[in-house]
Amino acid sequence: MKQTETRPKIREDWSAMTLYERFEQAAIVVLTGIIMIVIVSALWQLIREVGLRLLLGGLDPLDYRTFQAVFGMIFTVVIALEFKRSLLVAVERRFGVVQARSIILIALLAIVRKFIILDLSETEASKIGALAATVLALGVVYWLVRDQDMRERSESQDL
User: Fold this and answer.
1) Transmembrane residues, as ranges (predicted)?
2) Phi, psi dihedrals of residue 124, rounded to the nearest 5°
3) Secondary structure of residue 93 in the 3-state scheme
4) I want to staple 86 with a disulfide (CB 3.0 to 4.6 A). Which of 1, 7, 24, 102 is the partner?
């Protein structure tokens, strides 16, 4: 939905909202602003770091430490963007405050980021196993939630 289409809808809905729903919407707008600042800051740090490494000749993509550092920063930006997107969906009032699917996806992205920046030579096997079990559990929950959403959509289309 375009931003110009969203604003009038929010204005129309504002008068019909309860005090708590108005508070919820205001909080989401503030959080979106904060996340945008975090995204800009993280993106600036990423650009600066990659630029400095390119200028100083330290950007060797075959070096796993460089790979870990750069992709860890990229995933930080991606996680923040996904979180901001989930807040914007909530502002459009298409779903509840934040959809469970979005939270699970953000958690999965955060754990994938952790796997990327993890130094396997210094990490205990139990920690790696715990992270892997967490990914598996979140994957199963994501699949169940997605499956439930698909069933609800098909039921509402049948009506």
Assistant:
1) 26-47, 67-83, 95-116, 128-145
2) -70, 145
3) coil
4) 102
Cα–Cα distance between 142 and 85 in angstroms, integer? 18
Q: How far is CA 74 from the centre of its chain?
A: 12
Q: Tokens representing 58?
A: 């330290």
Report yes or no: 140 and 107 within 8 Å, Cβ to Cβ.
no
From residue 97, give the alpha-carbon distance in Å to each of 63, 141, 145, 149: 42, 19, 16, 16
Measure Cα distances from 100 to 15, 66, 72, 73, 85 in Å.
27, 34, 24, 25, 13
Place of tokens 């999965």: 108
pLDDT digits (tens), the chain, 159 positions: 455 555 555 556 767 778 887 888 888 889 989 999 999 999 999 999 888 888 887 677 677 777 788 888 998 999 999 888 888 776 665 555 457 788 888 899 899 889 888 888 889 999 999 999 999 999 999 888 887 767 777 776 766
Compute the residue count for the chain: 159
Residue 107 near residue 26, CB atoms below 8 Å: no
DSSP state of 97: S
